[in-house]
């Protein structure tokens, strides 16, 4: 099973304000504080593996409330001016990098612009590799059936969220790729069932 690493969004614009606040507090006279109760530290016996439990089914109201709660925990979105300046800086940096690569490889032409079809293709390739495609001859395919399911579900979410906002060619590409990877998943799971193979199980949680 492919473990999806968790991440935390950090608002880097808060660093300066926090540093100024800490400097202000350090300049003030110290005041006596009541001792805080200390909780005994758990004995460390190496890394602990945490397995995410499946989320129970929720209603539309619960999902909306969860979305609002998640949005409240996020830092404020960048302003239009901040986004514009960052985009310009990114494009300049990317252009400089491409010029350096082309200088070392004169035969290489300009790279085509990245489009929606490139995103669909990247997810498609990931799903097929997780289902054993691309294995070299003579080697045993390595199948990550649970990871493949998550990747295919990502394509489904992409199709749902972009519905009505794609061109005809983009929608046809997405629907064709989604159909193909789902068919490959069905064939693979049928083969596993016929051969009596057990799908990989998630690792047990670590001892506390």
Give a structural overview.
The two termini are 22 Å apart. The chain has a domain at 116-194. α4 (116-130) packs antiparallel against α5, α4 runs parallel beside α6 and α5 runs antiparallel to α6 (168-194). The protein is built from six helices and no strands. The radius of gyration is 25 Å and the shape is extended. With 208 residues, the protein is an all-alpha fold.
Short description:
With 208 residues, the protein is an all-alpha fold. 54% of the residues lie in helices and 0% in strands.
Count of extended strands: 0
Structural class: mainly alpha
Q: What is Rg?
A: 25 Å
Report the principal-axis shape. extended
Element order, helices and strands?
Answer: HHHHHH
Average the pLDDT over all residues and give the rounded result.
76
Strand content: under 5%
Point out poorly predicted stretches.
39-54
Largest sheet: none
Helix content: 40-55%
- Discrete helix count: 6
Query: How many angstroms does the end-to-end distance come to?
Result: 22 Å
């Amino acid at each position: 099973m492919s473990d999806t690493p968790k991440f935390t969004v950090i608002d880097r614009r808060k660093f300066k304000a926090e540093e100024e606040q800490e400097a202000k507090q350090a300049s003030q006279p110290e005041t006596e504080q009541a001792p805080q109760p200390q909780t005994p530290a758990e004995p460390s016996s190496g890394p602990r593996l945490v397995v995410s439990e499946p989320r129970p089914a929720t209603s539309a109201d619960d999902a909306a409330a969860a979305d609002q709660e998640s949005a409240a925990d996020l830092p404020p979105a960048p302003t239009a001016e901040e986004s514009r300046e960052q985009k310009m800086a990114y494009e300049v940096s990317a252009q400089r990098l491409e010029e350096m690569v082309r200088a070392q490889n004169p035969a290489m032409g300009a790279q085509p612009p990245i489009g929606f079809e490139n995103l669909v293709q990247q997810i498609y390739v990931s799903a097929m590799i997780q289902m054993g495609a691309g294995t070299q001859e003579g080697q045993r395919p390595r199948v990550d059936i649970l990871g493949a399911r998550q990747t295919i579900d990502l394509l489904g979410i992409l199709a749902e969220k972009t519905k009505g906002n794609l061109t005809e060619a983009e929608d046809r590409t997405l629907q064709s790729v989604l159909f193909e990877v789902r068919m490959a998943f069905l064939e693979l799971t049928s083969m596993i069932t016929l051969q009596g193979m057990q799908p990989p199980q998630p690792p047990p949680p670590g001892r506390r």
